[in-house]
Each structure stands twice: as C-alpha cells, then as structure tokens.
Amino acid sequence: MVGPSRPQFVLFGSSIVQLSYSHGGWGTILSDIYSRKADIVLRGYYGWNSRRALQVLHKVFPKDAAAQPTLVIVYFGGNDSMGPHSSGLGPHVPLPEYIENMRKILVHLQSLSETMRILVLSCPPVNEEKVKGNTSGIFSELVRTNELCQSYSEACIKLCKELDVKVIDLFNALQKRDDWMNACFTDGIHLASEGSKIVVKEILKVLKEADWEPCLHWKSMPTEFAEDSPYDLVAADGKTTLNPSEWTFYREVQWD
C-alpha cells in the first residue's frame, strides 16, 4: 500500500469492466478525471455472469475489510442475457435468477458501510448484425439480441429503484447517438472509445446530481498535494510560479 490514502472507486463487473482500460475505455477516462482525487480499482472479469459474481462477492468485498470503498460501480447482465445453449452450458442466467442474484450483490454492498455509495450500469444494447458476423469458429452459436438486452436492462433498473440504488440506463443512453451501432462498439458488444465517453458522461451526471455527502463529483473533491510551491513552473512575469494541480487543458474532452 502507498499513501496518502484516497477515496477508492471500485469497478466490479464482467468484460465491459475488464476492458474499460482498453480502446480509450471508460475506466481509463475515470482514472484521468480523478487523478490525485480518487483511486480507480478494477475488478472486471471477462465472460462472467451474475452467478460467478456471487461466488466471489465476499472475497472481493469482505465485510471485515480494514476500509470499505467510497463508491462501487457494478455491471453484470450482458452475459446473463445471452440466449440459453442447448447443452445447458454457457453464461445464460434466466431473468428471475438474474434479478435475485443482483439483489444479493447489491444488498451485500449496502451492508458493508452506511457511507459507501453504489452505482449500477444496466445492460447496454448490441449491434446484432456485427455480433453475428464476428462469431469465431471456436465458439458455438452466440445468441445476443437487443430484445434480451432490453428485458435484462429494464429488470435491473426496476430492482435498483426498489433498493434505492442509483442506476444508469445504458440500453437507452447509447442509443441516443444516431450512429450508435457502428460508433459505440469494437465488435458489436464491447465498448469503443465513443461508447465509453457516453458511459463516463452518464456516470459524472449521476455523481454531480446525487444528494450525497460528501459529493463524489470530481470538481467537488479535493486534489492531493495541491498547495502552491516555489518549485512549480515559473510564470511569464519571472517572479511567481504557476500551480498545475488543477490543469485539465490536456484532456481530449473537457468533462463537466
């Protein structure tokens, strides 16, 4: 461990989470936005469904941890929503079980700390034609449809409202962009940089508007070691220095 300790934001989910540091992903963007403010911790597991998440839930989020995260962002559902395979194998989880699995995950997280915040991402849409075209010979048939994605997304949103947990409707958020099917995905399922930017925008919107104390929006959080120093770059007047602690001009997107 290194110091000083910072608020910890944990990203917990399947491949949408594991790959969030690839292709200009949303995990990468959050790490940049929250640099010197919070540590973004990745707990993403490619191909996982809510059943497997439950198997490791108490290992990833133990009740007896010395400190609990400040924020947990949870995403499971895309793999659960895949059509069932005739063999009984594969990631498919029936919708009623998915709901109960997510309930157990969220209730456990709620039990860890009164101050820990939770944010859930619902199942995003897919580009069905691209998914069919990208199917590799090493896989059996992959059944990914937007009808299934939508039903799991809506069920997740309904559950979160019941539990008073913040949730982002990714199924509809991505589709607000006219060219979403081609712009938002690398392979029809996983997020390209443009899709990740939408995810970040939605996350920041929730964090800005949430009635949480303290506020977890990046502009409201203190910057580590932000005091002025004579060792900063010298200003044009040759007499003062410029504190770069809050500079953001280098970012591709000036986030609100």
UniProtKB/TrEMBL annotation:
Keywords: Hydrolase, Lipid degradation, Lipid metabolism. GO terms for molecular function: hydrolase activity. Residues 11-197 form the SGNH hydrolase-type esterase domain. GO terms for biological process: lipid catabolic process. InterPro entries: Iah1-like, SGNH_hydro, SGNH_hydro_sf. The keyword Glycoprotein does not apply. Pfam families: Lipase_GDSL_2 (PF13472). It comes from the Eukaryota. Belongs to the 'GDSL' lipolytic enzyme family. This is SGNH hydrolase-type esterase domain-containing protein. It comes from Arachis hypogaea.
